[in-house]
Specification:
The chain is α+β, with helices and mostly antiparallel strands. The chain has a single domain (10-161), classed as Collagenase (Catalytic Domain). Helix content is 49%, strand content 15%. It is built from 4 helices and 5 strands, in the order βαβαβββαα. It has a 5-stranded mixed sheet. Strand 4 (91-93) and strand 5 (101-105) form a beta hairpin. The protein is globular and about 45 Å long. The relative contact order is 0.18. The chain binds zinc ion (ZN). The site of zinc ion (ZN) has 4 residues, from helix 3 and helix 4.
Length: 166
């Protein structure tokens, strides 16, 4: 494994809610509550991600890996990395897939935030009804369903949230 970041990869870090712009946070909370009601869930929460500038990407990942190793040595079974390399993403389901944690990038437009929250919420809902996807074909179905849901939520909430389209 190389320490360089390949051009197709980005480093994301988990950020404190205090570092999330207020308009982003508000729109995400409203979307989250709406989706919970719609999907019949009550325990969703958001963990915020931010893109790490290339200049400190390598050091941020090294530090996060070190902290994860230390946490494991201290007895934590599955310490969640606080920074990681990934293909470009808008968000993802949390480390434990169906524990209700949605990871959402705070450095994107309000429309993208609404769509990301809805998309990841649908993944959690589906994985609880069935199970997290494993096979490529299952990922495709899950992805299609999440995209369709994202469209539906955006159509439903865009006016209410008074979010300008991207
Ligand atoms: Zn997805």
């Amino acid at each position: 494994m190389t320490s360089e970041t390949s051009p197709t990869e980005v480093v994301y870090e988990v950020v404190d809610v205090a570092d999330v712009p207020l308009d982003v946070w508000l729109v995400a909370q409203r979307t989250l509550r709406w989706c919970e009601g719609d999907l019949g869930l009550s325990d969703l929460r958001i963990e915020w991600l931010r893109t790490v500038p290339a200049i400190r990407a390598a050091s941020t990942v090294s530090m996060a890996n070190l902290l994860t190793t230390l946490a494991r040595m201290a007895g934590e079974s599955f310490p969640e990395p606080q920074a990681f390399r990934s293909r470009p993403i808008a968000g993802q389901v949390g480390w434990f897939f169906n524990d209700g944690c949605l990871r959402v990038r705070c450095d994107q437009s309000l429309e993208e935030v609404v769509r990301t929250v809805a998309h990841e919420a649908k993944h959690v809902a589906d994985s609880r009804i069935y199970r997290p996807p494993r096979l490529p074909a299952e990922w495709q179905v899950a992805e299609d369903r999440a995209r369709a849901y994202e469209e539906r939520v955006w159509a439903q909430l865009a006016d209410t949230l008074q979010v300008k389209t991207r």
